[in-house]
Design brief:
Elements lengths: L2 H22 L8 E2 L3 E2 L5 E8 L8 E9 L10 E4 L7 E4 L5 E9 L4 E2 L12 E8 L4 E10 L9 E2 L11 E9 L3 E8 L7 E2 L1 E4 L3 H29 L1
């Protein structure tokens, strides 16, 4: 094989690999409106997310579900969406016509978390806030929910106890039920020790098939590099 053919072959391989990696990238992270990518233990649908920010020592995993109650035997994935147009304030919306909804909210942080035993009903503007602490008791996150459209009937606001089963090992969370509103915007502020608080940005966690494709691309890239070295050795010989 000539040197020119060897270099051309390597260039084609690298170009194809770049395409594979680009195709496997978590496109949900830059999609304005995302579809559910996880099924929760009760059969309801939700979103598997990760929160990140510059200067934030913790990048928590977050699972969010917003589903009608009682839950339909087969939840419609087309009725649930997540608007990531502003990644610091994602908006979960369910277009189902049900009058009661349940919000499930889960976080995964090494060492464990302490959730409050009660969360106040949203005010007249649909806002409610609470703080999540670490296992040591130190506050880690301030969380706010903006529930809408329209006011929430405070008598319909119920924090479930006991909490539902965690959807994944390591996750801890809460479930809230309320009437009428069909959308929840959430924001999480990480309370950085000895530093300024930072607001987390959220993106969808890549599906396993995407991760496998990225791994295949990296393996192919390594093979192409070894082939390029062999070609250069043949040319210099």
């Amino acid at each position: 094989m000539s040197c020119s053919r060897g270099f051309a072959r390597g260039a084609i391989a690298l170009s194809a690999i770049a395409g594979l990696v680009a195709a496997a990238a978590p496109s949900q992270a830059i999609t304005a409106v995302a579809a559910p990518n996880i099924t929760l233990p009760d059969g309801s649908l939700g979103f598997n997310l990760v929160g990140t920010a510059a200067g934030a020592p913790i990048n928590p995993g977050v699972l969010v579900g917003l589903n009608p109650q009682p839950l339909p035997p087969t939840p419609d994935p087309n009725s649930l969406s997540l608007d990531l147009g502003d990644p610091t304030g994602p908006i979960a919306t369910n277009s189902d016509a049900g009058g009661q909804f349940e919000l499930q909210w889960w976080m995964d942080v090494s060492g464990g978390l302490i959730f409050p035993t009660s969360i106040p009903a949203p005010d007249a503007n649909g806002l409610t806030q609470f703080t999540i602490g670490g296992a040591s008791g130190d506050p880690l996150f301030d969380v706010s929910f903006h529930v809408g459209p329209g006011p929430v009937d405070p008598t319909s606001w119920v924090m479930l106890n006991p909490q539902p089963l965690p959807p994944k090992i390591g996750f801890e969370g809460i479930a809230l039920q309320f009437g009428d509103p069909t959308a929840v915007e959430f924001q999480v502020t990480e309370l950085v020790p000895n530093g300024a608080p930072v607001v987390l940005s959220f993106s969808m966690v890549p599906e396993p098939s995407a991760l496998a494709l990225i791994g295949a691309g990296l393996t192919a890239m390594a093979c192409a590099r070894r082939g390029s070295r062999a070609t250069r050795a043949a040319c210099s010989g």
